[in-house]
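Section: Multi-chain targets

For targets with more than one molecule, the full set of components is provided together so that the structure can be written out for the assembly as a whole rather than chain by chain. Components appear in the order listed by the source. The example entry contains two components.
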Amino acid sequence: MQADDLAGLATDERFRLLKARFRRLALTIVGAFLGWYFLYIALSAFARDFMALPAIGNVNVALLLGVLQFVSTFALAWRYTRYARRMLDPLSAELRDEAGQRQAERERERRILAERHRIENWTRR
Amino acid sequence: MTIGLFAVFIVITLGVTIWARVNTKGTDDFYAGGRAFSGAQNGLALAGDYMSAASFLGIAGIIALSGYDGFLYSIGFLVAWLLTLLLVELMRNAGRFTMADVLSYRVGRRPTVRTAAAVSTVTVSVFYLVAQMVGAGALVSLLLGIHPGETYMGISPEAAKVITILVVGMMMIFYVSYGGMKGTTWVQIIKAVLLMAGTLALTVLVLSRFGFNLSEMLGAADARSGRPGEFLNPGQRYAKDADGIVGKLDFVSLAVALVLGTAGLPHIVGRFFTVPDARAARTSVNWAIGLVGAFYLMTLALGFGAAALVGQQAITAQDPSGNTAALQLARAVGESVAGPVGGEILLAFIGAVAFATILAVVSGLVLASSTSLAHDFFGHVLMFGKPKESQEVAVARFSAFVIGVFAVFLAVLVRDMNVAFLVALAFAMAASANLPAIVLSLFWRRFNSTGVVCGVYGGLLGSIVLVALSPVLSGGPRSLLPPPVDFHVFPLENPGLVSIPFAFLCAVVGTLLSREKADPGRYSELSVRALTGAGAHGQSTKNVGGAR
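Its structure, encoded as tokens over all components, is:
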């Protein structure tokens, strides 16, 4: 893959869109899970009485929130994957194919040039 | 009988390893298993690499003894995978075999950066390795039921420990140097299936004792815990109210390292490259999240089940740190289902699973560090990026041997210490040395060689020095060095809270102070490649551009 082909794509509108979408998604997810995780850690460290309250039977708030951490992890992973499939994958596939085509074209040009060169050398002789 | 079942595991995995050897030809095969694993296969292997004996026996034990606080480990270990999910596709697209491929892609002084990455990879792996191997040594004497001062078939507990460490070491060296990534991946897959099956069986049996009523099980655990009414509340083990604010900060520090460390663990990162493309990499992390999540939910049942059915006294009588809780639970529920024979069978099965777990995890670690030594240090630093493939693979096989022997030596040396803190330290080092460098390489335009090097070494040294100056080593109630020695100045046992921000700071300051200009073209190239996968190392296209 030619370096300038890739760097050239960097200024492409579609790539900018892809990048913006990814960053927004990544920041949302990181913010959501880190915020929620550290809230939970802080509650465990500093709000012991609240965490000890009974929720369902012998299950207290601490255990319930802990299991909710599992649920939220599964949900966020699912959310990310769905969004990536719909909004990121088509764009990145398009750009990737284009980069591949450009490379193929360049390769063809190079071969034609080499061939022409060879013929010129041959006719000159 | 445990030994018999374990022998079956060994025979099967040896067969797979020999098959893998026949099918391993070049670096793509040795380092990345030919990039031919499916998302699901690699997901199982990721879970296999990740779920160590520390999490299987250790967490079940902590929950059994300290109730709710053990669960916090599980949560940190799982939530961390979301960060991995966000980074995995970018890393898969940008890199070839190792983290260093990503870090060195866009910077000027590549050999220096590669060396730093290799140093960090090997250090983190060796710390983690030693912890696992010492754990294996302790486990075997417990499994054979040898108490200090007694012998078992003429073997003293000390000798049993050393023999176990040697056997585990020999096996892991063989798996890695002979089977490479293909062999190791199949070992992980087999182990993950065994571990999930064993845990599931045990969980179902335990829950059935309580009519599948969680609340009832918790009540029973609470009643037998020795401090009813408190057992299920936070603060039984970590950040006890008596420890004040320092204890609480220490606890937060541990949580930070757990959640940020996973995405920088060398044996996890190395596994990103074993699939054909970024989509498969994403699928494999999703599989891993499902498996790891299910596993840790089940350890909850194991831990509280052990507290309820075995009881705290019986557990601490066998092992004060609770590592045998899951095994004792296996015997107890086995007995209740099928009498003493049933108990022995289930105990043997779970014991064999625990050994398989240790063996698979240490193999993954040895593979990751030998890959880094051969590919990054030998291939790109010593041979200027132009080694012969056959030469590089030979070096990788040899490095596996060297690192394996070194780890065995260290493990034998420290076999009697309580090295549980090494696992937490390995996570803290991965979070400090590797994660900042990875994130800034991918997202910060101005980042340069000096920044990477400062970030990696700053994070690595920062976390090691902080632990050396903490109560872990001296001056605390559970310190490794005896009481009169006291040179601790850093109050926290877990360095993450300080060392991770410190590493980011080093990386940023190093970048800004250096006169080296970042190459904006290379950065654009990296971001296009990372996000679209154009030019990524794939299954069919060999050596297209990239990691030079």
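Chain A is about 85% helix and 5% strand.
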